[in-house]
Amino acid sequence: MTLLDVTGITKSFGAVHVLHGVDFHVDAGEVVGLVGDNGAGKSTLMKIVTGMYSADSGNITLEGKPILGFDPGERRSLGIEMIYQDLALAKQQDVASNIFLGREPVRKILGMNFVDRATMKREAQAMIDRLGARLPAISRPVGSFSGGQQQSVAIARALTFDPKIVIMDEPTAALAVREVQGVLDLIRQLKSEGIGVILISHRLNDVLSVTDRIVVLRQGQATADLTTSETNMAEVVSAIVGGDDMAAAAEHESRG
Amino acid sequence: MTPTSTQGKPAPSLWKRLQAGSIEQLHVRLESLIVLIVLAGIMAMLSPFFLSVSNFLNILLATSTIGVLAIAATFVIGSGGLDLSLGSVMGLSGVVGAYVGVNWGLPMPIAVAACIGAGAAAGFVNGTIVTRAYVPAFIVTLGMLGIARGLALVISDGRVIYGLPPSMVYLGQGRPLSIPMPVIIFVTTAIVMHCVLAYTRYGRHTLAIGDSENAARTAGINIERHRRSLYTLSGALAGLGGLLFTARINAGDPTAGLTYELTAITAAIIGGTNLFGGRGSILGTMVGALIMGVLQNGLNLLAVQSYYQQMAIGAVLILAVFIDQYQLRKETRV
Known about the structure:
The complex is a heterodimer. Chain A is an alpha/beta fold. Chain A has 2 domains: 2-79 and 163-254, Rossmann fold (3-Layer(aba) Sandwich); 91-161, no CATH class. Chain A has 9 helices and 12 strands. Chain A has helices at 42-50, 72-78, 95-99, 117-130, 147-159, 177-192, 204-210, 233-241, 245-254, and strands at residues 2-13, 16-27, 31-35, 57-62, 65-66, 80-83, 106-109, 112-115, 165-169, 196-200, 213-218, 221-227. Chain A has a 6-stranded mixed β-sheet, with helices on both faces. Chain A has a 4-stranded antiparallel β-sheet with strand order 2-1-4-5, with helices on one face. A two-stranded antiparallel ribbon of chain A has the order 7-8. In chain A, helix 8 (233-241) packs antiparallel against helix 9 (245-254). Chain A is globular and about 60 Å long. The two termini of chain A are 37 Å apart. Chain B is mostly helical. Chain B contains 14 helices and 4 strands. The longest helix of chain B is centred in the last third of the chain and has 27 residues, at 223-249. Chain B is globular. The two termini of chain B are 26 Å apart. Chain A binds chain B through residues 50, 52, 71-77, 82, 84, 86, 88-93, 97-98, 101-104, 106, 112-115, 117, 139, 141, 143-144, and chain B through 20, 24, 195, 199-201, 204-205, 207-208, 211-212, 214-222, 274, 278-279, 331-334. Chain A: InterPro entries: AAA+_ATPase, ABC_carbohydrate_import_ATPase, ABC_transporter-like_ATP-bd, P-loop_NTPase. Chain A: Residues 4-244 form the ABC transporter domain.
């Protein structure tokens, strides 16, 4: 079943045409790698999916329901989560505040809605434990954590509200080897829970090892949609840099 | 300050635990609390008049107008913004309230509403220009500083408006249970606004926007709408400050509140509000305002020239920011 369906998305910034009608889809429980050169439009496309940018034309549906009319907050509550490359954390706030930012549970006291700190702390701790992340203290500002620990908080934020689809923008770029394996394991776990995952990465080894399909974005169009089990590094690289099928085939052959 | 060890695991020092506890439970920085207590102690030793209920109420009364403005400054600065028009908007509001009450002879509640409404309107204009026209807050509110002051002089024709209705004067000079009305209004406002900033979604989002606009935006917070409401709130609080001042002196003075924005911002910063947004609490700001109030009151009791008081407050401001930045650099990787 198609979870996320993106059709004919175009986007220009002034005179610069970034996306020229992109089509791609993600099924439930499917991991799709989104690769392409710098400037191919990967981040722009994902920001259109999350609602940070508006599309010039085209359509996006989640479980068959058009979502382009919704703002970023509404799309999150529909189940679209994104883990940004810069993590997008509020560094002076503590772990619970970051995880629940924009979706704080409230309790009514004297007619005023008060943020339910106790629930937030408890659930934040439970999510951190579930991820197996080791944080110095949950009540500390996240700015005092290491890069890997901060990423754990960003991941916890994306997973706390039962997402349907999780977009990860370069989640392994800044991590040590062991932490990379942790992220890849997490992606496999999300897949097993029926969550769709879009993985944006320049590390093609990671992409090849964890995805079901690889969509290649080139000059603002989805130029290739490869099944991971039937492709290889050379074909992906060739699709990214723009060698045609012949060149890719030739390279493929030359390797025997 | 050596860390004590329990079972080989280094425990945080008593100082660190007190610091964390103070911020977590009271939302006040331990350093500013200690400065306030030490300052009060020194003043008590130097002047026999300092430690008395009436002097304490005097300090609160003298702090009430600035205190209300400092609450506004905490919200706006905590969100990563700035409102330099606080003092001028306060002056404008006072004149509008006095004009409605005296020249139009309308009843007290309408004059009060006009006073606070004028402030809110000026704040709404600030917020709209900042969020819709993308002019930096520094420039917008600096412009409003001039516009509001000019408008106050235009409305009052440059003259002080005397003869407020008695029910309005009561808000500034009344003393139910021998507590001055401005103190009651100020303390109530502070408690309510403390709860808003520390415990409501509105307050948490305010600090999150100041901390990282990107984080707040990706979390689905409507930053433009939130910012505009903050400037409107700031203006409304400036209006309340104008009301307290006008009612207390029983006159609408178009020059009221001159440079008050600087004092209000100073109180917020001394109280631990991060100059660049993301951190701040009203209780902290109240401690900051009280530090300045105690300093002024004590130096008054000691008959020190007011010129020196200004110097002392300036020095405290720089010292407070120094300590803040020093600790921030030590503790966080930004």
